[in-house]
Design brief:
The complex is a heterodimer of chains A (about 775) and B (about 170). Chain A has about 775 residues and is α/β, with parallel strands linked by helices. Chain A has 24 helices and 23 strands. Chain B is α/β, with parallel strands linked by helices and about 170 residues long.
Chain lengths: ~775, ~170
Amino acid sequence: MSTLSESQLERAAGLLFTSTDYGIAVLDPDGRVTALGGALVDGIESGEAACDAMPFLVGLEDELAAAAGATGKPFHLPNLNLTLPSGKVRFVSLYILPGEEPGAASVVLRDTTEASLHHRKDMQRKNELDQTRRELETTNRLLAEASHRAEQATRAKSQFLAMMTHGIRTPMNGVLGMLQLLLDSNLTSEQHSHALTAFASGESLLRLINDILDFSKIEAGKLELEHAPFSLREVVEGTTELLAPLAQEKGVEIAAHIAAPVPDALVGDRGRLRQILLNLIGNAIKFTSTGGIHISVEKREQPHELLHFEVLDSGIGIPEAAQAQLFEDFTQQDASTASRFGGTGLGLAIVRRLVARMEGKLGVESEPGRGSSFWFDVPFEVHPTAAAVAPEAQGRALALSANAIVLRNFSEQLEALGYAPVAASDFNAVRRLVEQVPEAFAAVLVDESLPELEREAIANLPRLRDARRILACAQSHIGGDHEPGTGGYHARIPKPVWGKNLREAIESDGRSTRAAPFVTAPATRSERLLVVDDGEANRRVAHALLARSGFPVDTVASGEEALLRLERDAYALVLMDIQMPGLDGFETTERIRGLDGAAARTPVVAMTANAIQELGERFEAADFAGYIHKPVAKADLLATVDRILAAERSQQLPAHTIPVPELVAAEVLQEFWHSVGERAFDRLVDTYFEEIRVRLESIPTELAAQRLDSVERLAHDLKTCAAALGGLPLRDHAAALEQASREGDEETTRAIVADIGPLGRDTLAAVEALRSSIG
Amino acid sequence: MTVAKKICMLGDPGVGKTSLVRRYVLDEFTDDYQTTLGVNVYKYEDEIVAEGAVTHFKQILWDVEGGLQRESLLANYLGGASGAIIVGDVTWSDCAETMRANADRFRETCLDSPAVFAVNKMDRVEKSRRLVDVERLAREFGGIVKYTSAATGAEVTSLFRALARRILGVAD
């Protein structure tokens, strides 16, 4: 390689200097321009001071001197955006180089606009990103500050709300109590209707207040979670069973299943879990009109203590856009939803907070028209008890229902008992299955909703002759006196089907098949109570409240009468008004303690409109088992009575409380009263009485004459009348009679007719006794 | 009397150095952010009146790329500066820290040259906002802090004139 010759270099330099991309100014030792070349120094005049001609050299005097000096040190600054002497703005590199003469320097400019373009774009991008990041950071910080402030404000607000609602609740109870009294006084039907509306409104206001109180308690961080052992099965089955009648009334099936590896004995807050489930299932029922609802509990793989709950429905579904707002406070899908389905819109907000409080996660998947799935994952501690035992293998079972939820319920519960279920949705499918499956069927579980003919045909299939055949029916269809074997089935159990009921029904020997481990009417209490009050309205309120809860109640108007009663009859508890003319509550109680025998130990509950403090020493000295405020609030009254009776029972031998089925469901009668009004009520009850009496008399006659079709018709009418008055046992008897006579089962018919006469008379007497306290 | 001096604008990218200079020199402002590569060099002549005398102060303003990582290049850009305006963004939580880093860097190169501090973008916050940490920092450099807004022009001229007076050594 040869170096360039001097002339080549000169030529090259010449080319450079004539190029428009360059400029060179040669300076003399005084810093004046002596020679110029290239377009970038256009506008400079020879002899001009360099710093005047090129102001960007101000501050670079040291560098100019260094280049001009003995060492001839060059200096370079890239990327200067300058106004050139010509007035043009260019992007340049600046060089300060040693000049030809000693003590002089030259300034060289090179246009780098093009070259820097790329670089500039890169930087722009980088800095813009940086800027965005900063803006985000700032926004986040501001948001965090704002949300912190908001949280504090919310907390304060919630505390206030909790306090307020509590404060509202107390007078509301007073209002409701007084309305209760007013309702029991002599009112015209118009006045009564007004008072009733006020009472109903008050009650719904109280419900709303309770919701808000719950909600604000959680919000204010005041909600303490319980940490106690509980049975998961009990909670899930309990809530499902509680709401099943509500669903079944709408023709919606409901079932629940807890997957096998989920432990039953857990530690946590059973009440709050129940509240979450009640809310979600209640919502599902509200928004579902066909199909069903299925509740499932599974174990999450990771982490292992997490349980996955799902409430799946085939309801109206939720549009995707609305799903996000769903758990917001006071939000319902839209105003029309609220008016169609009611509710405060707080339910889901409470659920969200409860789940969060339990350190869980809540979600929803939904498709309009297809249904919704609400799920939550909550960690629970497992109570260290014996691990669940896998069920023994039980053989083949057949599950049959036209409803997918019911079929799922059947299969899951059969499987849980160790059966290998095959599912079918109609008779034809059953026939095919029975032909295909070689082994024998041990059990058959059939939905009662199937047409009767199909049910019978299935029961009569030869291949199923040796199987235990169980019918599952809506809860409202249970409770009658159905003989085993009715319609070719061994037992009837309520839907949804639980392992326990199912096992009992399958394993029972065919006798105890009246599987009714649930109660539809409130249990009747055997403890007789005495109410002592000089005010008639008060007596009636207390009587009505206690009688409706199943207690036999007597009332007297004075202390003297009370003493006479107690000498004659035994009472489990006395409710004693304090202020009475004649013997007041204190004196009467004192004299009760002086009675002979067990009567002296009868617990007495004081009823007073005063604050206890106002009654002072006399109250403390008196031997009261407790006290309640007047006007009497139902919850207070029942809680006090229950508490004292329980305490009494625990001191005595387990006794005399044998629950007998209640003849008349007071709330049905009450409902009837509400729906028809006072005057019509009396007339209609009289009419029903007559209808029932006539049929009770006719049925034995018709049976004696062998006219079973006539018995069937009479039984049908009897069933309707009995149901209207709340006589549920009578209704069920009549239903059984109707079925037996229709099936021509004379023996069963005869047995039921023998029972139905006395039952009918008792029912009428019970209605008669109740009707005065209704309203 | 005419004096020509080199003045540097220093600060992190995006704090508004270019905007301040353009507001001062050209009395214009744009929201459109253009990153500065290298240095924008401007010339602006102002008249500084002190004790009855008028000084024609020719400022060569070096608006230096923010966040420049090449220390030697930055030193070359800053070299020979008679003063600096250290700019920060009031909306940043670390405004004072970034200003301190830039002030320190300027001091390393230019030793005794004065610096004044511009807390910029005041149009985006409450007018009365004051940054204690920046004021503390400024005290080490002569104590001048201006709360500026290139967008509205607030305190921009007074910022540059305050530095000019410091450079010229005349009282405010």
